[in-house]
């Protein structure tokens, strides 16, 4: 696994830019997530879907990165959506009281159908 | 009693050393994956806070982390010689104003409180000592099972 336990992959499904995060998001690599998302927003992506289905766990550093990127998206008339927020990751969002802070959809397929 | 002690310098890059050490210790001792995940999160939150805030004057310092298997679970001890600070007293996350997005401040410690069964702090001489305990049954799972074994649902 690269980037200190986190892999960041991106692909397109129509006009939707899908960012797939795999591994752990913590204080060693959350800025990589923020940088990648901000770069995509700056490059003109308007519809970004972040798939968290293969994330083992995340810490508050990840929430900070996602909140900053969501703000950045709004400033650029773009939208950032999360999908596959399940298991431990969902519990951690709930513990942080941040599940409602984001647009969270179900599976990747459902999300792509909704956003496309 | 099995334990491992590791000392890192106050560079956030060294958090990856802690992560790898905890993975290895967890596999060797058979810490259940759910407890191991909780320990990873609390270690990242507590030690990153120490690195960010314990030494406002800057300079090179050390953080000591000790992981100990107890009869009833796992204990994590974090010791630093920074300014006195009890992380349990960190302010709770602020409620977001209606219609606005919440800010992440205070979320980390708020999560730590929910993830562990014991959260103690003591100022010992010139050092802060934080002691966290996570109750679990250690040694019951396969030695080969690791946190990376999570399958995509």
Assess the beta-strand content of chain A as a share of residues. 25-35%
Order of helices and strands of chain A: EEHEHEHEH
Radius of gyration of chain A, whole Å? 13 Å
- Largest sheet entry of chain B: 5 strands, antiparallel
Tell me the major beta sheet of chain A: 5 strands, mixed
Rg over CA atoms of chain B: 16 Å
Alpha carbon gap, first and last residue of chain B: 37 Å
- Mind telling me which CATH architecture of chain A this is? 2-Layer Sandwich
CATH-derived topology of chain A = Transcription Regulator spoIIAA
Strand order of the largest sheet of chain B: 1-2-3-5-4
How many strand segments of chain A? 5
Quaternary structure annotation: heterodimer
Give the overall shape of chain B.
globular
Order of helices and strands of chain B: EHHEEHEE
Overall domain count of chain B = 1
Helical stretch count of chain B?
3
- The averaged pLDDT of chain A comes out at 95
CATH class value of chain B: Alpha Beta
Kindly estimate the percentage of residues of chain B that lie in beta strands according to DSSP. Answer: 25-35%
Number of helices of chain A: 4
| Class derived from helix and strand content of chain A | alpha/beta
Brief sketch in words of this structure:
The complex is a heterodimer of chains A (116) and B (153). By secondary structure, chain A is of the alpha/beta class.
Any chance you could write out the topology, listing elements then pairs?
The complex is a heterodimer of chains A (116) and B (153).
Chain A: E1 6-13, E2 16-25, H1 30-42, E3 47-58, H2 60-75, E4 79-83, H3 87-95, E5 103-105, H4 108-115
Helix pairs in contact in A: 1-2
Chain B: E1 3-9, H1 15-29, H2 33-53, E2 62-70, E3 73-80, H3 107-115, E4 118-124, E5 127-135
Helix pairs in contact in B: 1-2, 2-3
